[in-house]
């Protein structure tokens, strides 16, 4: 094992873990919605991307500074998340889970097409911060912009935890997640909780979309499918419904794809990541942190 | 009184007949249909082609349209079908077009659509054992080399990348004799990018004395290029060639800038000489050199580009081909004795095919295009480079 290989391995691991936080955020969004409604929102990645484009529009129209662009991306995605809730989940029959799942697939394609139509499929520059900053630890470089992405994602997760475990809204969300009927009997309005959950998950998705675009420096509709797939893999590995699981899953997916890229090349990289997904689905379907606890 | 009435009725009848004939002549139309990706992530190519076709046919119609076999004039009507850069949809779209009164189709956008789609056409004309579709297709965008050979009903007006890159690397060798090494970057999952690096750029570079010191691969939707750029940084190449579409070209260029990779010459894929690259990463693309068969270097090209912009598109090497195809087809229709009736449709399509096959030269925006016996074209080209948020002509090989 030569020196360059060790350096490359460490570098791939560091880059993957830092970038994996965006997958973790997407995973948290999926898991948050699933935890509360027991339903998958497959339009989530597309909504995150659409929100990111709202930030781009502000950037192009008003030459908005990066923090404002990021904020608008996150808020825009939150609003789109709420729209997705109303269109795909609020009025679909609860006893037929396929209805909302398929509605969200339709919404994914719809949002994707609207974004492509509005942007003509063209890549647009997205503001980055600390783009040229690099921390050099010997021959391993830590990108300043990825460190920023990592930091923002960690802050977003911390805020989410505070929201879930330190506020009445979080209490209500957890109550609906665990026992929706009992929560309703206690006076909690499940519709309002669902709505807020979609909004919060949307904001997290918008942050993930913004940070992905900031890390590349360019945004294109191409990234929507990647975000959706990677986010889903992260939650399957971490355990659907578990927030710590989504975080660990996201970091693992980020690290795995970079390490497999180094070891097996780009054409085989995704095969191994998918193999990881397959192994978890067959050997540990609940994921790393999946809860076996039921609900009514 | 009776005679007067008869005369009046006769005059009325004759005038009505004359008016009807004139109206019928005025109403004659020839349908030429475009198809390609006008939605999806490469939708901009189809949108530009569609705009170029509309602008060109509008100009042709303003000048009187086309002349049919009986000497009458007909207007060209056109529409654009979307195949979403999907092979199955492309085949379905072409079958649908062939079932209408369309005389000929211009398209498709994507090489991965063109290759299987050309396979459903009759391979050899007059081959009774081949039940393939007998419908002429005149390709504007799908650029992967050699595809016209699949069927004798296919003609292409796409530039020869092999010729252009060979010329480009020869020019780089001549102007920078001190440069020795090249590193390639390729978008591995896109037919055009992959073909152009492995079969065109790499071979042209080696043929002109450059040593390939490494290759980096990535996928169309990748967002992280640090691994690939690291290999490039270590190889310290003199020349870097990136065979990728604008989104990943921009991603890779940014990563190269971050890792301070500064090759003396940066070469890009033909399809990247577009507004997309400039809009995505003008600063990082500065100096990116690309051979292209379109640049607004003469009055005709400038006016064509303006007409396409007025239709909501952009003129680049691909949409320029759509524009040229429209005018080539006008000349072919004028010369081929097209009848333009429902009864003569099959015969008219065959006449278009035969006339296109007989062409040895055709007018283009940068000069005369050579028409080759295999249905391909050899087009004039220039080298452009990204400069100050635009594309500027760097060198004209013919000058």
TrEMBL record, chain A:
Keywords attached to this entry: Amino-acid transport, Cell membrane, Membrane, Transmembrane, Transmembrane helix, Transport
Kindly give the InterPro entries that the UniProt entry links to this protein. Answer: ABC_transp_permease (IPR001851), BCAA_transport_permease (IPR052157)
**Organism's domain of life?**
Bacteria
Q: Name one Pfam family in it.
A: BPD_transp_2
Keyword flag Aminoacyl-tRNA synthetase: no
GO molecular function terms noted in the UniProt entry: transmembrane transporter activity
Q: Which residues cross the membrane?
A: 16-35, 42-62, 68-89, 101-120, 140-165, 195-219, 231-259, 271-290
Primary location group: membrane
Task: Give the GO biological process terms.
Answer: amino acid transport
Q: Which residues form the signal peptide?
A: none
Protein's membrane topology:
Multi-pass membrane protein
- Give Gene Ontology CC terms: plasma membrane
Q: Where in the cell is it found?
A: Cell membrane
| PANTHER family assigned | BRANCHED-CHAIN AMINO ACID TRANSPORT PERMEASE PROTEIN LIVH-RELATED, BRANCHED-CHAIN AMINO ACID TRANSPORT SYSTEM PERMEASE PROTEIN LIVH
- Family of this protein: Belongs to the binding-protein-dependent transport system permease family. LivHM subfamily.
Name of the protein in its database record? Branched-chain amino acid ABC transporter permease
The species is Palleronia pontilimi
Q: What is the lineage of its organism?
A: Bacteria, Pseudomonadati, Pseudomonadota, Alphaproteobacteria, Rhodobacterales
Automatic annotation (TrEMBL), chain B:
Gene Ontology BP terms = amino acid transport
InterPro entries per record: BCAA_transport (IPR051010), Leu-bd (IPR028081), Leu_Ile_Val-bd (IPR000709), Peripla_BP_I (IPR028082)
Q: Does the keyword Ribonucleoprotein apply?
A: no
Q: Which Pfam families match?
A: Peripla_BP_6
Signal sequence region: 1-20
Listed PANTHER family: LEUCINE-SPECIFIC-BINDING PROTEIN, PERIPLASMIC BINDING PROTEIN OF ABC TRANSPORTER FOR NATURAL AMINO ACIDS
Identification of the protein by name:
ABC transporter substrate-binding protein
**Phylogenetic placement of the source organism:** Bacteria, Pseudomonadati, Pseudomonadota, Alphaproteobacteria, Rhodobacterales
């Amino acid at each position: 094992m030569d020196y360059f290989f060790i350096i490359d391995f460490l570098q791939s691991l560091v880059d993957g873990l830092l970038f994996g936080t965006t997958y973790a955020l997407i995973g948290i969004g999926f898991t948050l919605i699933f935890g509360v409604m027991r339903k998958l929102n497959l339009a989530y990645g597309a909504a995150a991307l659409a929100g990111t484009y709202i930030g781009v529009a502000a950037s192009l129209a008003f030459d908005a500074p990066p923090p404002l662009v990021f904020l608008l991306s996150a808020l825009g995605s939150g609003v789109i998340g709420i729209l997705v809730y109303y269109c795909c989940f609020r009025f679909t029959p609860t006893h037929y889970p396929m209805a909302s799942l398929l509605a969200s697939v339709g919404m994914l394609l719809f949002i994707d097409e609207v974004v492509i139509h509005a942007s003509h499929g063209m890549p647009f520059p997205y503001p980055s911060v600390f783009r040229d900053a690099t921390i050099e630890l010997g021959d391993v470089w830590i990108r300043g912009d990825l460190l920023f992405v990592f930091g923002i994602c960690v802050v977003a997760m911390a805020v989410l935890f505070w929201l879930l475990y330190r506020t009445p809204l979080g209490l209500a969300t957890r109550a609906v997640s665990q026992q929706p009927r009992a929560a309703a009997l206690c006076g909690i309005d499940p519709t309002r909780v669902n709505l807020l959950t979609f909004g919060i998950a949307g904001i997290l998705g918008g942050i993930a979309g913004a940070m992905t675009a900031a890390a590349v420096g360019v945004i294109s509709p191409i990234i929507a499918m990647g975000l959706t797939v990677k986010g889903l893999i992260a939650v399957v590995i971490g355990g659907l419904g578990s927030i710590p699981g989504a975080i660990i899953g996201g970091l693992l997916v980020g690290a795995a794809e970079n390490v497999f890229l180094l070891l097996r090349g780009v054409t085989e990289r995704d095969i191994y990541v998918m193999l990881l997904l397959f192994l978890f689905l067959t050997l540990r379907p609940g994921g790393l942190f999946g809860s076996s606890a039921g609900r009514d | 009184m009776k005679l007067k009435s008869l005369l009046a009725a006769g005059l009325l009848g004759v005038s009505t007949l004359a008016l009807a004939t004139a109206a019928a002549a005025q109403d004659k139309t020839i349908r030429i249909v475009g198809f390609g990706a006008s939605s999806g992530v490469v939708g901009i190519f189809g949108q530009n082609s569609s705009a170029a076709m509309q602008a060109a046919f509008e100009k042709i119609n303003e000048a009187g349209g086309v002349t049919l076999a009986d000497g009458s004039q007909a207007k060209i009507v056109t529409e654009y079908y979307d195949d979403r850069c999907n092979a199955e949809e492309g085949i379905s779209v072409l079958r649908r077009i062939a079932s209408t009164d369309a005389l000929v189709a211009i398209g498709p956008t994507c090489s991965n659509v063109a290759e299987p789609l050309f396979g459903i056409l009759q391979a050899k004309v007059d081959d009774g054992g081949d039940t393939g579709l007998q419908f002429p297709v005149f390709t504007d965008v799908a650029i992967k080399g050699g595809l016209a050979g699949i069927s004798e009903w296919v003609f292409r007006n796409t530039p020869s990348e092999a010729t252009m890159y060979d010329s480009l690397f020869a020019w780089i060798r001549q102007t920078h004799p001190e440069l020795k090494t090249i590193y390639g970057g390729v978008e591995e999952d896109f037919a055009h990018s992959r073909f152009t690096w492995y079969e065109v750029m790499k071979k042209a570079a080696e043929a002109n004395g450059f040593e390939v010191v490494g290759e980096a691969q990535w996928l169309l939707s990748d967002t992280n290029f640090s691994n690939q750029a690291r290999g490039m940084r270590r190889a310290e190449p003199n020349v870097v060639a990136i065979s990728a579409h604008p989104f990943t070209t921009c991603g890779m260029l940014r990563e190269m800038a971050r890792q301070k990779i500064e090759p003396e010459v940066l070469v890009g894929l033909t399809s990247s000489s577009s507004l997309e690259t400039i809009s995505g990463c003008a600063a990082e693309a500065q100096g990116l050199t690309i051979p292209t068969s379109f640049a607004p270097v003469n009055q005709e090209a400038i006016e064509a580009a303006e007409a396409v912009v007025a239709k909501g598109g952009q003129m680049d090497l691909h949409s320029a081909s759509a524009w040229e195809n429209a005018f080539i087809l006008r000349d072919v229709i004028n010369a081929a004795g097209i009848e333009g009736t429902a009864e003569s449709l099959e015969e008219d399509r065959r006449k278009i095919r035969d006339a296109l096959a007989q062409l040895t030269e055709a007018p283009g925006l940068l000069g005369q295009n050579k028409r080759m016996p295999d249905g391909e074209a050899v087009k004039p080209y220039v080298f452009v480079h990204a400069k100050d948020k635009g594309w500027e002509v760097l060198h004209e090989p013919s000058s």
